[in-house]
Structure formats: C-alpha cells, structure tokens
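4.2 Preliminary Data

To establish feasibility before requesting continued support, the project team ran the inverse folding procedure on a target of 446 residues. The structure was first converted into the token representation described in Section 3, and no sequence information of any kind was made available to the design step. The complete token record follows.
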C-alpha cells in the first residue's frame, strides 16, 4: 500500500491498476481479493497481511474490520494526525491552488470515548432479534454492536440494555421508512453527565412508549428525558423535523467554555466537546486585528444553539446569530438568557444565504461593518452567501469547516478575486480514528 484515500482506504497498485482496499495502510504488504471493477480502479479486500505497516496497530474496536464508522482504527494515533495534516495541505493545493500557512494539527487529547452523541440504525431480523449498529463498509447492512469505544462511556453503557428493551417490545422496526422505529439516538452532556434518549420513528403509534420512557428515567438517574423524533420520509436523512417529548425534558444541560447550555434532542452541537473548546483561542486570534478598539460586532452565520456565539459575547463581542433551524434558535436565545448574555447576543431564525449581505452592513452608530464567523454544513457556503461576503467585505472572517474540500473551494473563491488574504489555517482532529478533519481558516480583507 502506498497511500490512503480521502475516505481512509488503502491505495495500492497491481501493475498499472489502482486498487482501493479498506483497512489497508501505507507500508502494508497485503494479499488482496479483487471485489469489483470500477472505471479507472478496482475495489479490493484484505485476504491476508504479508508484512504490516510500521504504523499499524491492533484496533481498539473488535468490529473495526467490518464497521464503516471508524476507517482509521488500525492506524497509530500519531500517524493519523500526520496523515490528516497532509490531507488538508494536499486538498488546498489541489482544489484552490493555495500555499497557505497550515499550522500543526490540533490533536485530540482523548482518541477514544470522545463522542457525546450517537444515532444508531435499527433493524429486526426475521427471527425477531434486534440489530443495532453502524453500517458495514460500502453498504447499508448493519454491523450489530453492543459497545462502541469512541462513544462517551455513559451512553455506550446504555446501548445493550436499550437494545434488549426495544427487542422485547412489539413495536415494528423499519429503518427504511416503511413504519415503526428507525434509529436510537443518545446524547450526553460531558460536563454534567445528563443523558437524552431519542427514538426516531416513522410514526408515533408505539403502544406503551410513555410507560417505558418513565421506567428508563427511573432506572437510570442520569437520563433526564426521552423524546420521539418523527421521520417518515424514505430517505437517508437521520432525523425528521418534529420532535415530541415523551417523558422528562427535551433538553440536557452541558457545560462549555465556562458557560451553561441547553442542548435539544434534534439540535446541532459539536460531538467532541473538548476539541470544540480547544478551538476557542484560535477563533479569538482569527478575529483579532491588532487594533486597540477591542471586540466589536460579529455576525455568526449557522450559529446553531449559540455554541461559539456565547463565549465571544462573554468576551465583549456583540453577536448577531443567524440560523434556519427554529428549535436551535429558541435554545440559543434560552442559552443567552441562562448566562446573562441576552444583551450581547441576539439570534435570528432565517436562511443565511438570503440575509447575510444585509446583516453584514454596519449600523448607523457602528464604527465599522461587523466581522464574520461561519460554521456551515458539510456542503460549505452557498453561492448567494459568498456573493454577499464579497459585496459587504467584512474586515475579518473566521471559517470553521468540517470538509476540507468545500473549504478549499470557498477559500479559493474568496482569495481568487483578490478581496481576501488567507492568513493561516488550523486543522483540528475532532474525530479521531476516522478520516474526518475539521479546519479553522483566518482571512483578512486586503
């Protein structure tokens, strides 16, 4: 094996043929079985290891060879961070032609037990046995699991007993949207230990659910609420638009950056709480301009529940948060009030691309236009949002991205017109043992 693909598959050659091998690592010598011919390459699978890569280790998870959740588990932690940093550099160069100053990757202090949330697909076999787990590599077949080592232990410990409870129920289970349960979702406040259980179902007809939910709360004191999310569309979308409270409350409390947050069953919050906190010093640096006027106005686009808005507001920034998910906006406002910051942070339920240009205009009494922080979905910034940024020209932009490819595309657009200079880029390993890497980019108007 010579390299890894952006999805963490080993890349090797058989003569002139390129072969992608899940589980293969650079430096491995493997016996492989050719599985499928694609245009320009083969897919293969490991039939045996002739000699292992010096970076190969025993995977922390017994299901690592089958489960598609963590493609880099066989790779040593230090080698993972080296590869992720290299991926960021190569992606910037390949897509945007940028030779940006990329800082050393911010490695995770805890490569296991870091995930504060899990959404686990469900299915019931013909014999009535319930299976719960993530998908097998390259398929939608479930790899049945009772434990997952990247999950916070407080939700990991609940998987097996909840599977047993759901298996004993008479509820239909069909993750394809035909009716009944689809997913089991678990979320924990890592600072508080509070847990939310959410069942994702195509309909609400689950006899005895309320009694079972109350029994769970009585059995596990850390469980503060049980919710039912309705997702009846035959798509791969995990959660639907409507969430009902079955028992307890529909949110848990979390501590983040010295502040208190309420997080709902269906609202976004970074799955690695510790790494999200570690981003804050770099975010503050990205927004600093060296002047003596101190903090100023900031538009936080795709602000969610105010995760990063509120620590900035606590430091004197006046925040205008934009978010299209109404339950997240409600919680953002609640979180601002919970921390006494409602006078420093306001939140608007709107589509970012439609209003960003207007919100970036300076108020009459303002010294200058607001600065901008964006944390968009994986698809990156919409064309309308990019156009609004180029028109308003905020003096500083901090861009947090979960996809280096769409980040590189957007940075190429912003810098390619000569409007902005990319000062630095900070990779952050939010997802150890997977191929994913987060990045924070700092841009300055020329």
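Position-by-position output of the design step:
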């Amino acid at each position: 094996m010579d390299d890894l693909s952006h999805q963490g598959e080993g890349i090797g050659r058989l003569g002139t043929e390129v072969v992608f091998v899940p589980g293969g690592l650079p430096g491995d010598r493997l016996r492989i079985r050719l599985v499928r011919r694609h245009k320009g390459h083969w897919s293969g699978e490991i039939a045996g290891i002739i000699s292992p890569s010096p970076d190969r280790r025993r995977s922390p998870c017994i299901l690592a060879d089958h489960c598609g959740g963590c493609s880099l588990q066989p790779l040593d932690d230090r080698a993972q961070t080296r590869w992720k940093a290299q991926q960021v550099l190569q992606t910037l160069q390949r897509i945007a032609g940028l030779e940006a100053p990329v800082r050393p990757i911010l490695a995770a202090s805890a490569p296991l037990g870091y995930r504060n949330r899990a959404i686990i697909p469900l299915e019931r076999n013909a014999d009535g046995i319930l299976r719960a787990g993530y998908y097998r590599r390259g398929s939608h077949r479930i790899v049945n699991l009772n434990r997952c080592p990247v999950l916070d232990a407080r939700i990991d410990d609940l998987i097996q007993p909840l599977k047993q409870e759901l298996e004993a129920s008479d509820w239909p289970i069909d993750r394809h949207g035909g009716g009944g349960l689809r997913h089991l979702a678990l979320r924990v406040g890592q600072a508080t230990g509070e847990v939310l259980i959410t069942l994702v179902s195509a309909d609400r007809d689950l006899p005895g659910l309320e009694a079972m939910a109350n029994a769970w709360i009585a059995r596990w004191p850390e469980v503060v609420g049980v919710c039912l999310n309705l997702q009846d569309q035959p798509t791969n979308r995990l959660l639907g638009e409507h969430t009902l409270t079955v028992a307890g409350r529909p949110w848990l409390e979390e501590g983040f950056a010295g502040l208190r947050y309420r997080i709902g069953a269906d609202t976004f919050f970074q799955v690695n709480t510790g790494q999200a906190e570690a981003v804050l010093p770099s975010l503050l640096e990205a927004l600093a301009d060296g002047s003596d006027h101190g903090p100023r106005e900031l538009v936080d686009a795709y602000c969610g529940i105010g995760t990063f808005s509120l620590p900035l507001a606590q430091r004197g920034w006046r925040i205008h948060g934009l978010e299209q998910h109404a339950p997240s906006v409600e919680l953002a406002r609640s979180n601002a009030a919970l921390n006494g910051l409602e006078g420093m942070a306001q939140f608007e339920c709107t589509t970012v691309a439609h209003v960003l240009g207007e919100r970036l205009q300076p108020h009459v009494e303002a010294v200058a236009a607001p600065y901008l922080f964006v944390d968009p979905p994986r698809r990156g910034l919409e064309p309308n949002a990019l156009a609004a940024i180029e028109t308003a020209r905020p003096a500083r932009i901090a861009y947090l991205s979960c996809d280096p490819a769409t980040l590189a595309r957007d940075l190429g657009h912003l810098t390619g017109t000569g409007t902005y200079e990319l000062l630095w880029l900070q990779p952050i390993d939010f997802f150890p043992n997977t191929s994913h890497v987060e990045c924070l980019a700092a841009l300055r108007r020329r």
